[in-house]
Amino acid sequence: MTRILLLAGTAEARALAGLLSTTPRINLTASFAGATMEPATFPCPTRTGGFGGAEGLARWMHKQHTDLLIDATHPFAAKMQTNAFFAGEKAGIPHLRVLRPAWPNRPKWLHAADMNEAAQRLPSRIKVLITTGRKDLAPFIARPDVQFTLRSIEPVSDLPPHIQPLRARPPFSIDSERALFALLGVTYLVTKNAGGSGTAKLDVADEMRLSTVMVARPAPPPGAIAASPEAAVAWVRDKVAF
Ligand code: NAP
């Protein structure tokens, strides 16, 4: 029996759990931060909450006799991906990062290395839609000269008056993005290069000639990377004969 710890929180993690949970001689546990996704619908045992950094994760894996570690957290889960890499190294457990491909560059994009740079790229007195999630909002809070709408899946509280929250859950269609952008009267979109199928906002921003500020991904950790759940299964196959 091969024990696999899957760090989850993405559609890829869910798909991979589906593929691995029906595989013979695999004992899969999925782990959630406890912030967004609903673990109840996962096809394998789950656990929830942080491990206490890389050391804590290494200890947890040692105690559970984990054989393989697969990190399928979001491309912007910078802390977790670093912890996972170091925990794998420390515990001597093979580690794989699952990372969906980033969206390729588009002509009208303004590139930003991080949220600070994204906020600096915005001119004064404009209307902006931010879809970067509820973390790292300080640079936008520090721009009261700009009117923001912040779209997020989870609720965000304690926002200043120049940032209006908008709770919404993807997927978003071209038609709904068109209607939203027109309703808000935004001229800028700030988003992060999550990759994946949620490109309607990018297509509509192009169509409406908005400026898109695209925040770059954090650098991935060293070591093995799989671009899809299927590639992750191939990596597992390489490690275990099944
Ligand atoms: P993060 O900043 O990289 O991680 C913060 C801490 O949360 C980690 O140090 C770890 O705590 C804990 N953690 C994160 N993922 C975990 C997991 N799968 N299982 C157990 N503990 C976990 O992560 P984040 O950006 O806040 O993302 C949190 C979760 O939301 C991730 O599972 C991610 O896939 C998902 N998510 C993130 C984004 C995004 O844009 N960042 C978007 C969609 C979904 P300890 O150090 O105590 O172990």
Note down, in words, how this protein is organized.
This protein has 242 residues and is an alpha/beta fold. 31% of the residues lie in helices and 23% in strands. It has a six-stranded parallel sheet with strand order 3-2-1-4-5-12, with helices on both faces. A six-stranded parallel sheet has the order 6-11-10-7-8-9. β10, α7 (200-207) and β11 (211-215) form a beta-alpha-beta unit. α1 crosses α8, α2 (53-63) packs across α3 and α6 crosses α7. The protein starts with a strand and ends with a helix. The structure holds NADP nicotinamide-adenine-dinucleotide phosphate (NAP). NADP nicotinamide-adenine-dinucleotide phosphate binds at residues 7-10, 31-33, 35-36, 50-53, 56-57, 73-74, 76-80, 83, 133.
Unique bound compounds: NADP nicotinamide-adenine-dinucleotide phosphate
- Radius of gyration over C-alpha positions, nearest whole angstrom: 20 Å
What's the mean pLDDT score? 95
Assembly state here? Answer: single chain
Main sheet: which strands, in order across?
Answer: 3-2-1-4-5-12
Can you write the helix and strand succession as a string? EHEEHEHEEHEHEEHEHEEH
Strand coverage percent? 15-25%
Number of helices: 8
Protein structure class: alpha/beta
Low-confidence stretches: none
Distance between termini? Answer: 10 Å
Task: Spell out the blueprint of helices and strands.
Elements: E1 2-7, H1 11-21, E2 26-32, E3 46-48, H2 53-63, E4 68-71, H3 78-91, E5 95-98, E6 109-112, H4 115-120, E7 127-130, H5 138-141, E8 147-152, E9 163-167, H6 174-184, E10 188-192, H7 200-207, E11 211-215, E12 224-226, H8 229-239
Parallel strand pairs: 1-2, 1-4, 2-3, 4-5, 5-12, 6-11, 7-8, 7-10, 8-9, 10-11
